[in-house]
Amino acid sequence: MFDVYITRAGKYLPNEPVSNDEMEGVLGMINDAASKARRIVLRNNGITSRYYAIDKEGNVTHNNAQLTHLAVEQLYDNNFTKKDVEVLSCGTSSPDNLFPSHASMVHGLMDNQSVELNSSSGVCCAGMNALKYGYMSIKSGNSKNAVCTGSERSSTWMLADKFNNEVINLKNLEEQPIIAFRKEFLRWMLSDGAGAFLLENKPRGDVSLKIEWMESFSYAHEHEACMYAGGDKLEDGSLRPWQDYPAEEWLKQSIFSVKQDVKLLDKYVLDLGSDSTKIALDKHGVDYRDVDHLLPHVSSNFFGSRLYDSLLARGIDIPTEKWFLNLSRVGNVGAASIYLMIEELMNSGRLKKGEKILLIVPESGRFTYSIAYLTVC
């Protein structure tokens, strides 16, 4: 078995940052009315700026594959070029197409040579699953390097015109033309961008991160879906997929919108994440006091202090001075978020050789968690 290192990290954030006051001008107003939910959601999530692959006139500037490719290009230099890539492993929850796969579409932009591909779906853990595929490929000796990515282009899912048909339908039914909170909530939470890592079997440069281990946990056997798209939830908690709806209902009910069951989120996301973290640390014999940097992917600053309390209740006391977050500056970029955090920390000048980094990535889709432990080299 071979050691695995993150030797380079790249990112791509499209266009200029969008402030809270500019969001609705870019995404548009539903039913030509200012959102009542926007200020409440923004006050709780603590995000002050984010990036959209849409310009401020509403024109689409990049698709997901292009965002990802631009992040991958940041990994190249004179010692590692696009012709050296052996494995390309890409994770996202918002691919441009149902198929071909996201990784295939990114590879199509690389203009290099035949490589091994992997596409990981899901929500926030899709990026970590892509990373684990590359990790295992190098660990096993199957390859000497892998490019792993996490990316999202959520903004086009959240444009007002995706919801206006539902508003018209509600008016025709003489009901209140107000989009349900579970659909509008994520309009003010999600943003666009991509991150990329180069994984190799030897360290390189001034800072490399050795991946000591990666663990994943799913609780779908215990809980119904919490965050979903391309379907709707029935009274029994099951999801009815978009294929089972008549085509005319797709727009009338905003079937393809991203939805969040905020009650389930609040009830389970923190405790299951803390349980998973404790199981992973105990399995590998890691003392939480050895952690120098904690990188938790939190979708909202609302969960920050509550995550600390949840970990503390399980005997894990990592002070917030050791936490590294960039949510307020770049927004919640789903599968790309952990990549963007690591890229920023790697290039911050703060890391010292021998330090330990703990990653905690939750996914509220149907409650999945990824935990990883890194050593600075």
TrEMBL record:
Secretion signal: which residues?
none
> What GO biological process terms are annotated to this protein in UniProt?
secondary metabolite biosynthetic process
Question: Do the record's keywords include Acyltransferase?
Answer: yes
Q: Which GO terms describe its molecular function?
A: acyltransferase activity
Keyword list (alphabetical) reads: Acyltransferase, Transferase
Q: Which domain of life is it from?
A: Bacteria
Q: Does the keyword Transferase apply?
A: yes
Record-linked SUPFAM superfamilies: Thiolase-like
Boundaries of every Beta-ketoacyl-[acyl-carrier-protein] synthase III C-terminal domain copy: 281-360
Looking up NCBIfam families in the UniProt record yields: PRK06816.1
Q: What is this protein called?
A: StlD/DarB family beta-ketosynthase
